[in-house]
Write a structure and sequence with these properties.
With about 325 residues, the chain is mainly α. The chain is built from 15 helices and no strands.
């Protein structure tokens, strides 16, 4: 078993220093905002994530080790392999992240990270407690099948996580243009956390933003449309337990609704967040279409369709 440093633990002093510095910036200017109860909830979510990882993190790692034992490929642990692994794992992260916005079962875990209506470095620590239940680790198993050792992937995943810490801030407006083109930045990630219709389901990259540019999910931040943070229907609570499990509760309530077909019940678990069998709710696709109908001049802009569907209702599955 190759040994790598625990980069997340090593970065804890950096996390604390960053929050303190951002608080000073918030005190001296309007470039950052804090709400004590919100920040405390985020910190509690971060601690809970660590505890849950210690208790059941072996499930995902065990699955990765099983795949590694099965695959005949072995790439080793040299520096070139480490760098390639970092890039490939970021590609994996893009798709995990995208699936986590497009499949409600995975969104039930990831929504925790989006639940804050504030955007600062404490928001980066608002991590889910139910990642294993969402089965997101399955997305990473093909990377292991290529011959990357699970310990190496855990290490580069930690590097990815630490990188994403600094982009959770309003204190930095823009980076140099070349940097904005290649890498994820505070500006790009503010878009990802925003609930403005044009910004929904965009900018999924971890370290690199090039995946979004390649797959058509990149949306730039516009000064004329400031980001509004949170989720489409905000929780109105700072209770970590409710933040952690509210969407799972919603799924459970929908699954036991009377009079639904098996296909409709599966839709409530596996379709896009906001899907409903009777069109009583709205997905991000429909919210974007509604925006274009209200403001036709925005049609075709990044993140928005050219023409909205004639009806915002969703056809129930047969």
């Amino acid at each position: 078993m190759p040994e790598y440093p625990d980069v997340v633990t090593l970065a804890v002093p950096l996390f604390v220093a960053g929050i303190l510095l951002e608080m000073v910036i918030a005190w001296r200017s309007d470039r950052a905002r804090f709400e004590l109860r919100d920040s405390m909830c985020s910190l509690a979510m971060g601690v809970g994530n660590i505890v849950v990882g210690m208790l059941i993190g072996f499930v995902g790692f065990g699955a990765a080790m099983a795949v590694y034992e099965w695959t005949p490929l072995r790439l080793g642990t040299s520096w070139p392999v480490l760098v390639i692994g970092l890039v490939i794992d970021d590609f994996r992260y893009y798709w995990w992240h995208r699936f986590s916005h497009e499949i409600r079962w995975m969104w039930a875990s990831h929504v925790n990270h989006h639940s804050s209506q504030h955007y600062n470095l404490t928001t980066a620590l608002r991590q889910p407690w139910s990642s294993t239940l969402s089965l997101g680790f399955v997305v990473g198993l093909p990377v292991i099948a290529l011959g990357f050792h699970p310990a190496l992937i855990v290490f580069v995943g930690g590097v990815n996580l630490v990188y994403q810490y600094w982009i959770h801030t309003e204190a930095i407006h823009k980076m140099p243009r070349w940097f904005e083109f290649l890498f994820n930045t505070p500006s790009h990630h503010r878009v990802h956390h925003a609930t403005n219709p044009r910004y929904l389901d965009a900018n999924y990259g971890g370290i690199f933003i090039v995946w979004d540019r390649l797959f058509g999910t990149f949306v730039p931040e516009l000064d004329e449309d400031p980001c509004r943070y949170g989720i489409v229907k905000n929780l109105g609570t700072f209770n970590p337990l409710r933040v952690a499990f509210h969407e799972w509760s919603g799924i459970a309530r929908d699954l036991v609704r009377p009079g639904l077909s098996l296909k409709q019940r599966l839709g409530y678990a596996l379709a896009r967040p906001g899907w409903s069998h009777d069109g009583s709710r709205k997905t991000s696709v429909l919210l974007k279409a509604d925006h274009v109908r209200r403001i036709p001049g925005d049609a075709g802009q990044p993140g928005l369709p050219y023409i909205g569907p004639e009806s915002s209702s969703q056809s129930p599955p047969s």
